[in-house]
From TrEMBL:
UniProt source species: Falsibacillus albus
Protein name according to UniProt: DUF3696 domain-containing protein
Domain of life, source organism: Bacteria
Pfam families associated with the record: AAA_15, DUF3696
Limits of the DUF3696 domain: 302-351
Annotated Endonuclease GajA/Old nuclease/RecF-like AAA domain residues: 83-288
């Protein structure tokens, strides 16, 4: 479906094209373009769904005014986002301001991309880094477009409504334990966090109650258990709710997770990605990065099914310069970039006086 995205003159970008595979990891320095790249996708979803009625501000993302999002280093008078399908058809969103009036032109050459990006079709899910934490009660979802919520606020309601439904057959890790969302969710939750989830709709209200337990122990309220459970649950539900070809965008999946849980979560993400669900993941975690490398080594996912980009600001152009990182079939990095999850080694060398 979606094969690449070209971003031109948006914030720190001059002109960059990011090739997309099933598992896409965005790494790199702060303020180097990772979030801006994700914003380009959200801006596309928003404008395709609303037919450009509010070019820069809406329910998914609000960027303010044109002067705030153009590339000021280049004194850009416009910016554009071009989406490409696997058949190389394209859809361009062109933003320009003249006489303090912002205009948006959508040059559509692919109905397939319009269908994919329109929120009504629920093919793309986005989980912000500002995901909600521990709550005892979660609201029912009356949003026609967003199943999980950008903060994961509707994940528990989605789970309660769909827990007895079978998930996509390719996404089932262990068929012996059952094919429903409940069976597979708790399989992964036990594996990653040694825990289980129980939910119930509270009759006569617009609320759902959630409880967690560590295996072989009693269920307790989310506020009385580690906060990492609340942050991981929306990621697991979003992945298991996907169909082949869907896209999940996740910011900082490592929030509040122990390094071992981060590594095991990456096993989940790469397993789902290898079955045909796309992920775009922004991370600052070397455990997520190394978990991906381990998945390559263990043949959970092939190098042909993933891309990793390292984002940094070019000293000469002062613009973002994303570089594709390559791996061999054992998960070894073939073209290391300074700053690519090497701080542990740098600190150790300093401690040892090397």
């Amino acid at each position: 479906m979606l094969s690449k995205i070209k971003v031109k003159n948006l914030k720190c970008f001059d002109e960059s094209t990011i090739e997309l595979r099933n598992f896409n990891l965005l790494a790199g320095m702060n303020s180097a373009g990772k979030s801006t790249f994700i914003q380009s996708i959200l801006l596309s979803i928003q404008n395709i769904s609303s037919e450009g009625k509010n070019p820069l501000n809406g329910n998914l993302i609000s960027l303010g005014e044109f002067s705030e999002v153009r590339n000021f280093v280049k004194n850009a008078k416009n910016f554009s986002i071009t989406l490409y399908s696997e058949l190389n058809n394209s859809l361009e969103l062109y933003f320009e301001e003249e006489n303090d009036q912002l205009s948006l032109t959508i040059d559509n050459r692919s109905e397939e991309l319009v269908e994919f990006f329109h929120q009504k079709n629920k093919r793309i899910r986005y989980l912000s880094s500002k995901r909600i934490g521990s709550q005892d009660l979660y609201s029912n979802n009356y949003d026609n477009f967003n199943e999980i919520g950008i903060f994961g606020e509707y994940a528990i309601d989605y789970y309660e409504s769909n827990k007895t439904s079978p998930i996509e057959i390719l996404l089932i890790k262990d068929k012996n334990i059952g094919s429903t969302l409940e069976h597979q969710l708790n399989y992964w939750l036990k594996y990653i966090m040694n825990s289980e989830l129980s939910t119930e709709d509270i009759h006569g209200t617009d609320l759902v109650r959630a409880q967690f337990s560590y295996v072989n122990n009693r269920f307790v309220r989310p506020k009385n258990i580690g906060s990492g459970l609340s942050y991981i649950i929306s990621i697991l539900i979003s992945g298991l709710a996907s169909k082949v070809g869907d896209l999940n965008i996740i910011e900082n999946p490592e929030i509040h997770l122990h390094p071992r849980a981060q590594s095991k979560l990456t096993e989940f993400l790469t397993f789902i990605a290898d079955k045909g669900v796309k992920f775009i993941i922004e991370t600052h975690s070397d455990h997520i990065f190394n978990g991906m490398r381990k998945a390559i080594n263990k043949k959970v996912i092939s190098t042909e099914s993933l891309n990793t980009y390292f984002f940094a600001i070019d000293d000469k152009t002062l613009c973002s310069n994303p570089k594709l990182i390559k791996f061999d079939n054992n998960g070894n990095v073939e073209n290391h970039e300074a700053g690519l999850f090497d701080q542990f080694d740098d600190d150790l060398d300093e401690l040892l006086g090397l």
